[in-house]
Amino acid sequence: MIIPTYDHKTVEVDLPAGTSQSNLLALPALVDPHVHFRVPGGEHKEDWQTGARAAIAGGVTTVFEMPNTNPPTTTADLLHAKKKAIEQQLKTIGIPLHYYLYIGATNDNLTEIEKVKDEIIGIKLFMGSSTGNLLVDKKADQEKIFALAAKLNLPVAVHAESEALIERNKALHADNDSIKVHSLIRNAEVAATAVAQAIELAEQNGTRLYILHTSTAGEVDLIRAAKARGVQVFAEVTPHHLFLDSESYHVLGSRAQMNPPVRRPEDQTALWQGIANGTIDTVGTDHAPHLLSEKALPYPKSPSGVPGIETALPLLLNAYHKGKITLENLVAVISANAKKIFNLPANDDWVIVDLDLTKEVKNENLKTKCVWSPFAGWNLKGWPVVTMLNGKTFYLSS
Ligand code: DOR
Ligand code: ZN
After folding, report:
1. Does residue 47 sit within a domain?
2. Which residue segment(s) compose the domain that 280 sits in?
3. Residue 177 pLDDT greater than 90, yes or no
4. What tens digit of pLDDT does each residue of 322-334 get?
5. Contact yes or no for 305/36 (Cβ under 8 A)
6. Could you give the angle at the alpha carbon of 242 between the alpha carbons of 330 and 379, nearest 5°?
7. Residue 120: pLDDT above 80?
8. 18-27, 158-167, 188-197, 352-361: which has the minimum mean pLDDT?
9. Protein residues placing their CB within 5 Å of the ion ligand 2
10. Which of 72, 205, 314, 385 has the most CB atoms lying inside 10 A of its own CB?
11. Which of 43, 45, 68, 285 should be mutated for ligand 1, with most atoms under 8 A from CB?
């Protein structure tokens, strides 16, 4: 069957007999520049078999995977061991997912980073602590990482939250045990302070900077201004920050707990504007699976993070139907921009979407090992029906 592409070309796909042709459209398969597939050490939450199946279900054929595993990916040996495990797991299920790995920065692993400079997509720097124990919170140590990255022509991807301010706010709110305090402890100032510092370090050192999960209006302003000055800064936003906000705690409790936290509706508006005007470059899901039994622990023992790789595309297509994003910008943020920023090799991977298919997000249909979604119960219009990876065609059933 001949399917039109988003840019008025065509692509030929074998579709099972009886497939409705009503409103099919081919988009470049998604690049998800931010996933946590939990190998090693967190395999009860996700592994590369369930993670890759979830990726395909979401129309994703390329992922960048994060180093906050257990142990964290901070040395050449650990990176190589992780790669070996991934290769073996992907081979078992016959999904040749394109994947790239980040190495995690520590206070003293510069030589390890240099050893693997040609094998990684970039350096992940936690300026504030999150899931796992990676943290480089002193400016002098951060500076060394930015300088090395510039020398090696590697991007630095930052989890931009100020550790000092998180600690200060924890003390200020010590008597508040409501889950909503999570957004007060990790408030907008926490994010903006770290983003400003990261931009300063990138500007001084000539480093390419990738801001993960931009979530506030203040960050968007800082990024827009830095881009205008010619700083090589790029910005990601997550589906959960685009579609959930601080009201979500009422419905979801700790299933709306993540770092950085859900924000005010005004921040959400700034993120959508950032996509529209090119300040925001990418959507990365920050797919961070935790079991519901873990999420049910009382705050702050409940871990931060939500799964998202399977729902990003339907959420964005639904937003397209509502006029919140153009198809052109959708393609830019789900794949085209990441390919440019990270110089990815060209591929011929596609996701065929049925723009008219309306379906409810149901936990039992998910492929992620944690089998839940903060978007369960949402009725969305526009779903992927086929994912094509390296010439292999995957029909998405449920
Ligand atoms: O909410 C989050 N979860 N934020 C992070 O920075 C890490 C992630 C995880 O790995 O669970
Ligand atoms: Zn993350």
Report:
1. yes
2. 29-346
3. no
4. 999 999 999 999 9
5. yes
6. 80
7. yes
8. 18-27
9. 286
10. 314
11. 68
In a domain, 310, yes or no: yes
Q: Whose CA is nearest to atom 2 of ligand 1?
A: 305
How far does the centroid of ligand 2 lie from the alpha carbon of residue 339, in Å?
Answer: 19
* Sequence-ordered strand ranges (E) for the chain: 2-4, 10-12, 24-28, 30-35, 60-65, 98-104, 122-126, 156-159, 209-211, 233-237, 282-283, 350-360, 379-389, 392-395
Degrees to nearest 5, angle at CA 61 with 375 and 24:
70
Total number of domains in the chain: 1
> How remote is the CA of residue 259 from the centroid of ligand 1, in Å?
6
Tokens for 282, please give them: 């990418």
Residue 392 belongs to a domain:
no
Examine the pLDDT at 22 and tell me if it is beyond 90: no
φ/ψ (deg, to 5) at 100:
-135, 145
Q: For residue 214, how far is its CA from the centre of ligand 2 (angstroms)?
A: 11
- How would residue 18 be classed by pLDDT, with cut points 50, 70 and 90? confident
pTM > 0.85: yes
286 counts as catalytic: yes
The CATH number of whichever domain residue 137 belongs to comes to: 3.20.20.140
| CA–CA distance, 287 with 33 (Å, rounded to integer) | 10
Give the three-state DSSP class for 273.
helix
**Contact (CB, 8 A) for 108 and 148:** no
Residue 77, in any domain of the structure:
yes
Degrees to nearest 5, angle at CA 378 with 373 and 380 = 115
